[in-house]
Amino acid sequence: MAGGxxxxxxxxxxxxxxMNLPKNALLTSREKDVAWLGKQGVSREEIAKELNISVNTxxxxxxxxxxxxDIKSMREL
Length: 77
What we know:
Elements: H1 9-19, H2 29-39, H3 44-51, H4 55-69
């Protein structure tokens, strides 16, 4: 898959967990990417670089994730 992101088995399992959230907490595919990386302890700047997006966009995704999941930090995932 050209331009796609490849995940190892552990990463795939984490993504599956995120994908099985209640419908009212449904995350977009990009929010899932940001959530997974954030949960792994990757910094906002590193997430932005990895996903080829701005840090401001990462922050927006994080705000959306926190709101949708009613959490205050990535540690709560």
